[in-house]
Amino acid sequence: MLKMTPKDKGRGSMLKKIFRLFGVATFLIASGHSVQATTYKDVTLGGVNLTAYCSKIYGYYFKAKLIQNHAGGWTCEKTAGNRRPISVKKACILQYGHRAYKAKALNWTDPTSWRCFARQAIPTMTGVNLTPWCQKTFGSAFKARLVQNHAGGWTCEQSSGNRRPISVIAACRLQHGSRAYKATALNWNDPYSWKCLVR
Protein backbone atom coordinates (compact mmCIF):
# COMPACT_ATOMS: atom_id res chain seq x y z
CA MET A 1 0.00 0.00 0.00
CA LEU A 2 1.32 3.46 -0.92
CA LYS A 3 1.96 5.89 1.97
CA MET A 4 1.41 9.61 1.66
CA THR A 5 4.07 12.11 2.70
CA PRO A 6 3.05 15.48 4.20
CA LYS A 7 3.80 16.99 0.78
CA ASP A 8 1.44 14.48 -0.85
CA LYS A 9 -1.26 15.26 1.70
CA GLY A 10 -0.94 18.97 0.94
CA ARG A 11 -1.20 18.32 -2.78
CA GLY A 12 -4.24 16.08 -2.24
CA SER A 13 -5.91 18.82 -0.21
CA MET A 14 -5.26 21.32 -3.00
CA LEU A 15 -6.78 18.96 -5.57
CA LYS A 16 -9.91 18.59 -3.44
CA LYS A 17 -10.31 22.36 -3.35
CA ILE A 18 -9.97 22.56 -7.11
CA PHE A 19 -12.55 19.78 -7.56
CA ARG A 20 -14.98 21.63 -5.29
CA LEU A 21 -14.38 24.92 -7.09
CA PHE A 22 -15.30 23.52 -10.50
CA GLY A 23 -17.80 20.94 -9.31
CA VAL A 24 -15.78 18.09 -10.79
CA ALA A 25 -16.94 14.71 -9.62
CA THR A 26 -14.35 12.74 -11.57
CA PHE A 27 -10.95 13.65 -12.85
CA LEU A 28 -10.09 13.38 -16.52
CA ILE A 29 -6.41 12.93 -17.12
CA ALA A 30 -5.55 15.12 -20.06
CA SER A 31 -2.47 16.62 -21.63
CA GLY A 32 -1.72 19.64 -23.75
CA HIS A 33 0.44 17.53 -26.03
CA SER A 34 -0.73 17.17 -29.62
CA VAL A 35 0.13 13.66 -30.74
CA GLN A 36 -0.27 12.03 -34.10
CA ALA A 37 -0.62 8.30 -34.23
CA THR A 38 -0.12 5.96 -37.15
CA THR A 39 -3.73 6.01 -38.29
CA TYR A 40 -4.36 7.88 -41.53
CA LYS A 41 -7.12 9.07 -43.79
CA ASP A 42 -7.03 10.03 -47.46
CA VAL A 43 -7.24 13.74 -48.25
CA THR A 44 -7.92 14.99 -51.77
CA LEU A 45 -5.21 17.24 -53.18
CA GLY A 46 -7.12 17.96 -56.35
CA GLY A 47 -7.23 16.97 -60.01
CA VAL A 48 -4.23 16.01 -62.10
CA ASN A 49 -2.57 17.62 -65.14
CA LEU A 50 -1.81 14.65 -67.40
CA THR A 51 -0.42 16.75 -70.24
CA ALA A 52 2.23 18.21 -67.91
CA TYR A 53 3.31 14.66 -67.13
CA CYS A 54 3.44 13.62 -70.80
CA SER A 55 5.50 16.68 -71.78
CA LYS A 56 7.89 16.24 -68.85
CA ILE A 57 8.48 12.51 -69.36
CA TYR A 58 8.39 12.14 -73.14
CA GLY A 59 9.08 15.62 -74.51
CA TYR A 60 7.36 18.91 -75.21
CA TYR A 61 5.28 17.68 -78.16
CA PHE A 62 3.54 14.92 -76.17
CA LYS A 63 0.08 15.69 -74.83
CA ALA A 64 -2.46 13.72 -72.81
CA LYS A 65 -4.97 12.14 -75.23
CA LEU A 66 -8.20 10.30 -74.41
CA ILE A 67 -8.48 7.29 -76.75
CA GLN A 68 -11.15 5.33 -74.84
CA ASN A 69 -14.08 6.85 -72.99
CA HIS A 70 -13.27 5.75 -69.44
CA ALA A 71 -10.75 6.65 -66.73
CA GLY A 72 -8.20 4.17 -68.07
CA GLY A 73 -8.45 5.54 -71.60
CA TRP A 74 -5.65 8.13 -71.35
CA THR A 75 -2.34 7.98 -73.18
CA CYS A 76 0.54 10.31 -73.95
CA GLU A 77 0.43 11.11 -77.63
CA LYS A 78 2.67 12.99 -80.06
CA THR A 79 0.89 11.62 -83.13
CA ALA A 80 -1.63 8.83 -83.67
CA GLY A 81 1.28 6.55 -84.45
CA ASN A 82 3.45 7.72 -81.54
CA ARG A 83 1.81 7.02 -78.20
CA ARG A 84 3.33 6.24 -74.81
CA PRO A 85 1.87 4.86 -71.55
CA ILE A 86 0.72 7.24 -68.87
CA SER A 87 1.03 6.88 -65.09
CA VAL A 88 -1.57 8.92 -63.26
CA LYS A 89 0.11 8.26 -59.90
CA LYS A 90 3.43 9.62 -61.19
CA ALA A 91 1.58 12.57 -62.70
CA CYS A 92 0.18 13.29 -59.22
CA ILE A 93 3.66 13.14 -57.70
CA LEU A 94 4.98 15.44 -60.41
CA GLN A 95 2.21 17.93 -59.67
CA TYR A 96 1.96 17.76 -55.86
CA GLY A 97 5.26 16.27 -54.78
CA HIS A 98 5.78 13.12 -52.74
CA ARG A 99 2.89 13.86 -50.40
CA ALA A 100 0.74 12.54 -53.28
CA TYR A 101 0.82 8.83 -52.58
CA LYS A 102 -2.23 7.68 -54.55
CA ALA A 103 -4.25 8.46 -57.68
CA LYS A 104 -7.85 7.33 -57.91
CA ALA A 105 -10.64 7.68 -60.44
CA LEU A 106 -13.78 8.57 -58.51
CA ASN A 107 -15.93 7.23 -61.34
CA TRP A 108 -14.35 4.79 -63.81
CA THR A 109 -16.83 5.76 -66.54
CA ASP A 110 -15.79 9.42 -66.22
CA PRO A 111 -12.31 10.01 -67.70
CA THR A 112 -12.04 13.39 -65.93
CA SER A 113 -12.67 12.00 -62.44
CA TRP A 114 -9.02 11.30 -61.54
CA ARG A 115 -7.94 12.80 -58.22
CA CYS A 116 -4.65 12.84 -56.32
CA PHE A 117 -4.61 11.93 -52.63
CA ALA A 118 -2.33 12.55 -49.68
CA ARG A 119 -2.33 10.71 -46.37
CA GLN A 120 -3.24 12.70 -43.28
CA ALA A 121 -2.49 11.40 -39.81
CA ILE A 122 -5.46 11.19 -37.45
CA PRO A 123 -4.88 11.76 -33.74
CA THR A 124 -5.90 8.57 -31.94
CA MET A 125 -4.71 9.38 -28.44
CA THR A 126 -7.30 10.49 -25.92
CA GLY A 127 -7.32 11.29 -22.24
CA VAL A 128 -8.48 8.69 -19.74
CA ASN A 129 -11.02 9.02 -16.92
CA LEU A 130 -9.76 6.85 -14.06
CA THR A 131 -12.54 7.37 -11.51
CA PRO A 132 -15.25 5.40 -13.42
CA TRP A 133 -12.92 2.41 -13.53
CA CYS A 134 -12.25 2.68 -9.78
CA GLN A 135 -15.97 2.82 -9.07
CA LYS A 136 -16.85 -0.03 -11.41
CA THR A 137 -14.08 -2.24 -10.05
CA PHE A 138 -14.11 -1.47 -6.33
CA GLY A 139 -17.39 0.34 -5.59
CA SER A 140 -19.02 3.74 -5.95
CA ALA A 141 -17.19 5.19 -2.92
CA PHE A 142 -13.80 4.91 -4.66
CA LYS A 143 -12.22 7.76 -6.60
CA ALA A 144 -9.01 8.11 -8.57
CA ARG A 145 -6.43 9.75 -6.31
CA LEU A 146 -2.91 11.01 -7.01
CA VAL A 147 -0.64 9.95 -4.13
CA GLN A 148 2.76 10.38 -5.78
CA ASN A 149 3.72 13.09 -8.25
CA HIS A 150 4.44 10.94 -11.31
CA ALA A 151 2.47 8.91 -13.85
CA GLY A 152 2.57 5.81 -11.65
CA GLY A 153 1.28 7.72 -8.64
CA TRP A 154 -2.45 7.07 -9.18
CA THR A 155 -4.53 4.82 -6.97
CA CYS A 156 -8.19 4.05 -6.35
CA GLU A 157 -9.06 5.43 -2.93
CA GLN A 158 -12.07 5.16 -0.63
CA SER A 159 -10.12 6.66 2.27
CA SER A 160 -6.43 7.13 3.09
CA GLY A 161 -6.53 3.71 4.72
CA ASN A 162 -8.38 1.98 1.90
CA ARG A 163 -6.57 2.18 -1.41
CA ARG A 164 -6.50 -0.25 -4.32
CA PRO A 165 -4.22 -0.60 -7.36
CA ILE A 166 -5.28 1.07 -10.57
CA SER A 167 -5.04 -0.22 -14.16
CA VAL A 168 -4.86 2.57 -16.72
CA ILE A 169 -5.24 0.22 -19.71
CA ALA A 170 -8.36 -1.29 -18.10
CA ALA A 171 -9.69 2.26 -17.58
CA CYS A 172 -9.01 2.97 -21.26
CA ARG A 173 -10.92 -0.16 -22.29
CA LEU A 174 -13.84 0.77 -20.05
CA GLN A 175 -13.92 4.20 -21.71
CA HIS A 176 -13.32 3.17 -25.35
CA GLY A 177 -14.09 -0.55 -25.50
CA SER A 178 -11.91 -3.00 -27.38
CA ARG A 179 -10.66 -0.18 -29.63
CA ALA A 180 -8.29 0.85 -26.83
CA TYR A 181 -5.16 -1.27 -27.27
CA LYS A 182 -2.59 0.54 -25.13
CA ALA A 183 -2.19 3.11 -22.37
CA THR A 184 0.92 5.25 -22.30
CA ALA A 185 2.25 8.12 -20.22
CA LEU A 186 3.80 10.68 -22.56
CA ASN A 187 5.92 12.00 -19.70
CA TRP A 188 6.49 9.82 -16.63
CA ASN A 189 7.13 12.90 -14.50
CA ASP A 190 3.71 14.30 -15.47
CA PRO A 191 0.91 12.30 -13.80
CA TYR A 192 -1.63 13.94 -16.13
CA SER A 193 0.04 12.78 -19.35
CA TRP A 194 -1.67 9.37 -19.59
CA LYS A 195 -3.22 8.67 -22.98
CA CYS A 196 -5.34 5.86 -24.42
CA LEU A 197 -4.25 4.64 -27.84
CA VAL A 198 -7.39 3.82 -29.77
CA ARG A 199 -7.64 1.95 -33.07
Give me a quick take on this structure.
With 199 residues, the chain is of the alpha+beta class.
SSE blueprint and pairings:
Layout: H1 6-22, E1 28-29, E2 39-46, H2 50-58, E3 63-66, E4 74-79, E5 82-84, H3 88-96, E6 100-105, E7 114-122, E8 125-126, E9 128-129, H4 130-138, E10 143-146, E11 154-159, E12 162-164, H5 168-176, E13 180-185, E14 194-198
Antiparallel strand pairs: 1-9, 2-7, 3-4, 4-5, 6-7, 8-14, 10-11, 11-12, 13-14
Helix pairs in contact: 2-3, 4-5
Describe this structure in words.
- This protein is α+β, with helices and mostly antiparallel strands.
- The protein folds into two domains: 6-37 and 124-198, no CATH class; 41-119, no CATH class.
- The chain contains five helices and 14 strands.
- It has helices at residues 6-22, 50-58, 88-96, 130-138, 168-176; strands at residues 28-29, 39-46, 63-66, 74-79, 82-84, 100-105, 114-122, 125-126, 128-129, 143-146, 154-159, 162-164, 180-185, 194-198.
- Strand 11 and strand 12 (162-164) form a beta hairpin.
- It is rod-shaped.
- Mean pLDDT is 84; it is low at 14-37.
**Strand content range:** 25-35%
Question: What's the shape?
Answer: rod-shaped
| Structural class category | alpha+beta
Alpha carbon gyration radius: 28 Å
Number of β-strand runs: 14
What summary fits the major beta sheet? Answer: 3 strands, antiparallel
Percentage of residues in helical conformation? 25-40%
